[in-house]
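Please check this.
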Amino acid sequence: MPSRRGLIKTLLPLAGLGLTACNRSENPHSIRMGVNARPRMLDPRKATDALSSRVNRLLYRQLVDFNERFEAVADLAEWQQLTPQHYRFTLLESSQFHNGESLTAADVVATYQSVLNPDFGSPHQGSLKNIKQVVQVDDKQVDFWLHAPDPLFVGRLVIGILPKSLIDSNHPFHERPVGSGACRFISLNEQKLVLQRPDKVTLEFINVKDPTVRVLKLKKGEIDLLQNDLSPELIHYCEQQSGLQVQWQHGTGFGYLGFNFDDALLSQLAVRKAIAYGIDRQAIVDALFNGHARLAGGLLVPEHWAGVPDIHGFAYDPELAKLKLTEAQIPQTSRNAEGLIELSFKTSNDPTRIRLATIYQSQLRRIGIHLNIQSYDWGTFYSDIKQGRFQLYSLAWVGIKSPDIFQYVFASNAIPPNGANRGRYRDSDADRLIALAANQQSLSEQAETYRALQRHLQQTLAAMPLWYEDQYAVSRNNVHGMQLYADGRLDGLLKVKKVTL
């Protein structure tokens, strides 16, 4: 990872590579956002990547949304729970799709029936499998019938609503989206996606894969703003530029270290605790993130309705870490010539992630552990993690709103391919608490159970909590009104303005 001085030396010669400002740089009717990839799926029934999901929020409206405590609130519709397995949704206002058709209950039914159709292949079918039937009552009302009670059900209804007429005609929404959201689709190619706001201002999402080039284009006026996806060094560089501004917002992305519970060493709680006590998370946050992250305890942020404000992970204590290692059963074959315990750590080849791995390596060496760092391209790395081919790794969960994530990530029956329990964590108490929460009908009771679960997950170190990284945006000085959100959504683009300097 280059030093900050080395980064600036890298940036300076690149600055002359034809990245000159174009005549449209001061066009107040066009907001250009640099992104690291083209949105992959503009059909909300099939979108799973973060960028596509965030763009789809601008194109489509959904039945419900979430407030700051991540509680479900009405968007298109309000609801009544008529019985534990019967919900009635009523559309709140007259809405129109961008093709001029009115949005009615028939469109809601068609959207969800298509998601539930196994032949359609929606990745969201699994989270909605408890829906037994979706029935239109009249033009404004829809009934959802469930196979079994589910107090989290309303929060699952976040699929953007599509026109029934276009669903019936197999319209290619992924290429030509038609929704009822704040923005209208204009065009899409490999280089950029163009949307239009109600005030006729266009939002252009310009694909610039290389983050250094993205920053240079921002500095030269070829794009107007960025959100996330820069290294700490590049963010610092932007903060030093007189023509740029950086703004921050607390985030909800949960960074963690994953352990392989099928491994003879890492299945021992003493070894996991030694690692947790041996990593100085606050020093890393201060040095690498310049303080722009919060130490994590539970998977859910403290302000979540089921969050736990009083747990913060393990405090740095290298002497206690060494003591824990003396309590573990470490065969001589697991030590190198220096007597250090050998463990492998897998990560992606992202420079920031490699730098983090080297910091873990340096800190753990002080307590008697040597990390062998193995970095791979994203596809290879992610495949290895899902297959359980690792001892230690690091990833993050982003955009988490519903506490049913615990079933997906920590239940004994959720080991891939049945879920995302990649560490092969098996714990009867955790399974009991997950099942108990799923069967409770009161959200307040659920909240207490999920809090108990998160405390148990920390005590057993199902994964090592690291931090919640902050969200940030970098823009030119003539860009105003950008609002950031904890989950990284792009709704702030709806009010951004660009002025002529």
Observations:
- The CA atoms of residues 26 and 500 lie 6 Å apart.
- Confidence is low (pLDDT under 50) at residues 1-10, 12-24.
